């Protein structure tokens, strides 16, 4: 009898202890990080830098899942529908801000379906020409294009990229006509200028920086708010006479909407730490990126201003929706 009573008491104590035990702290299992582009690109490389550091600081594996296709829409759609528990993250590019202006229908809402965590890095675009063109400045380009309307072509890494929108913004603001020739990537778009297929290239800085430094291409301007440190003699578009002309490609971290604030704040803090190391800063710089490591509120504000700005530019430029 006494034995049965003691057993019952022990069982009750164990049950109470289980219910009183605190929930396991986040994270207690591996985290998936969706990258909506193919492996090896700038966004993917930034994702791997951040994932590696988060794996160490959070003491759980952060596993990259590349889900390319439809200009990032497939992967972003998958992330939008994931459970908002902090175990599925999205690391994407400016496509999250650009695609709402380019596509008639998307499998996600860039504002409503995601919880911003941090704008990690950004990178300017650059306008390039062949040295033998005789064009040395943006003013030279505009004058030449106006003197021969309809004869200039410009290359970009593809329709709807920030590089494409840079070219379209120049056309609108300078009042010139140039035909857009899209390529599959910034490298081919830069090479098209080099081999004379197009007269002008609007490309992401990393693809052209080596050719600019070697003298194979002439850089007319970068589209960041400041000059690029490794190209100190190349002016910005602002310095070239276009106030407010800033067009950068960013990589940013998101979670599905509804993810608990404490998890979002933890990931923002750890992401900032991940990019604070000398190794991460060197890797980012070599890719042509500047470290931002912003807050959730800053990323939310950027997204809410960027989306309508891109929509307005697309409308002014008369670009066809997909």
Can you describe what's shown?
- This protein has 322 residues and is of the alpha/beta class.
- It folds into two domains: 31-122 and 249-317, Bordetella uptake gene, domain 1 (D-Maltodextrin-Binding Protein, domain 2), CATH 3.40.190; 124-222, 3-Layer(aba) Sandwich (D-Maltodextrin-Binding Protein, domain 2), CATH 3.40.190.
- It is built from eleven helices and ten strands.
- The protein has helices spanning 2-20, 42-58, 73-80, 95-102, 138-147, 162-174, 186-194, 205-213, 261-274, 278-286, 296-317; strands at residues 31-35, 62-66, 88-93, 114-129, 152-156, 178-182, 200-204, 218-222, 248-256, 290-291.
- Strands 1, 2, 3, 4, 5, 6, 7, 8, 9 and 10 form a ten-stranded mixed beta sheet that branches.
- Strand 5 (152-156), helix 6 (162-174) and strand 6 form a beta-alpha-beta unit.
- Helix 4 runs parallel beside helix 11.
- The relative contact order is 0.17.
- The model is unreliable at 5-23 (pLDDT under 50).
């Amino acid at each position: 009898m006494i034995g049965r009573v003691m057993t019952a008491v022990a069982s009750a104590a164990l049950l109470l202890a289980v219910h009183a035990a605190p929930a396991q702290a986040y994270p207690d299992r591996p985290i998936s990080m969706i990258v909506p582009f193919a492996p090896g690109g700038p966004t993917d490389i930034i994702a791997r830098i951040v994932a590696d550091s988060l794996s160490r600081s959070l003491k759980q594996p952060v596993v990259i899942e590349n889900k390319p296709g439809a200009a990032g829409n497939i992967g972003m759609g998958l992330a939008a529908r994931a459970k908002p528990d902090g175990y599925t993250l999205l690391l994407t590019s400016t496509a999250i801000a650009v695609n709402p202006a380019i596509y008639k229908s998307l499998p996600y809402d860039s504002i409503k379906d995601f919880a911003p965590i941090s704008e990690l890095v950004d990178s300017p675009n650059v306008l390039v020409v062949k040295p033998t063109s005789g064009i040395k400045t943006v003013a030279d380009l505009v004058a030449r294009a106006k003197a021969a309307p309809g004869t200039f072509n410009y290359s970009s890494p593809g329709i709807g990229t920030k590089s494409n929108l840079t070219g379209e913004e120049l056309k609108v603001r300078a009042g010139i006509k140039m035909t857009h020739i899209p390529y599959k990537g910034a490298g081919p778009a830069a090479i098209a200028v080099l081999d004379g297929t197009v007269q002008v290239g609007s490309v992401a800085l990393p693809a052209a920086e080596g050719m600019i430094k070697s003298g194979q291409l002439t850089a007319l301007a970068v589209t960041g708010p400041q000059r690029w440190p490794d190209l100190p003699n190349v002016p910005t578009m602002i310095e070239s006479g276009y106030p407010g002309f800033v067009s950068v490609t960013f990589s940013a971290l998101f979670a599905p909407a509804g993810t608990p604030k404490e998890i979002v704040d933890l990931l923002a803090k750890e992401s900032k730490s991940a990019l604070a190391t000398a190794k991460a800063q060197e890797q980012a710089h070599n890719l042509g990126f500047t470290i931002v490591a912003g807050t959730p509120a800053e990323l939310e504000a950027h997204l809410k201003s960027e989306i309508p700005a891109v929509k307005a530019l697309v409308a002014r430029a008369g670009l066809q929706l997909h």
